[in-house]
Design brief:
The chain is mainly β. About 0% of the residues lie in helices and about 55% in strands. It has strands spanning about 5, 35, 40, 45-50, 55-60, 65, 70-80, 80-85, 90-100, 100-105, 110-120, 120-125, 130-140, 145-150, 155-160, 160-165, 170, 180-185.
């Protein structure tokens, strides 16, 4: 239940009989706080909290976090580094802060949060982006550069009580003979 600070842990090994292939509740069953300041690389699934009775209290990434599938369930989640997934990313949190960061999901990215704060960050989603944010979602204004590139549909499940994404660019990519469905429950103010 202590804070783990990583300054170079890697679960990857060329020899599959060595190192971590998955991060799950068996790896650190009582861990409450994880701070990554290095490289946390797991070749298969990282399940931070979805597979146990309680979420992590804090999951903070200041380095590189990489896996085939990334699942993070934490009270507070902060990414100031790189999160990279060979497939999908699933996030469930009360407070999500993406600041000076890069997130890459080869397929879908699903975020369920009470509050989201974006700042100077890039998100590349190869599949569908789903955001379910209940309280606040903002990016700090027009001097902040936040970017989403989504290569499939975008679904905003609920309109947050307070939201302002004036400094955020969302680029929905549609190649020849494809269409993208963007479901956004905001009011059209004609701007």
């Amino acid at each position: 239940d202590k804070i783990v600070q990583n300054s170079g842990l890697s679960g990857y090994s060329e020899n599959k009989s060595q190192g971590l292939t998955n991060w799950d509740k068996k790896v650190a069953p009582n861990l409450k706080n994880l701070i990554n300041n290095g490289n946390l690389i797991v070749p298969d699934v990282q399940d931070f909290g979805f597979d146990r009775n309680m979420p992590y209290e804090n999951w903070i990434n200041n380095g590189t976090n990489s896996a085939f599938i990334v699942k993070i369930y934490a009270e507070n989640l902060e990414n100031n580094g790189v999160v990279r997934s060979g497939q999908n990313i699933q996030i469930k949190t009360k407070h999500l802060k993406l600041d000076d960061s890069y997130v890459f999901a080869k397929t879908d990215m699903v975020v369920e949060a009470n509050n989201v704060k974006l700042g100077n960050q890039t998100n590349i989603v190869g599949g569908k982006l789903v955001l379910d944010v209940s309280n606040t979602m903002n990016d700090g204004g027009d001097s902040i550069n936040s970017y989403f590139q989504v290569n499939n549909d975008i679904e905003i499940k609920t309109l947050p009580e307070k939201s302002n994404l004036i400094g955020t660019t969302i680029h929905a990519v549609a190649t020849n003979f494809t269409q993208r469905v963007i479901s956004w429950p905001a009011k059209n103010k004609g701007l």
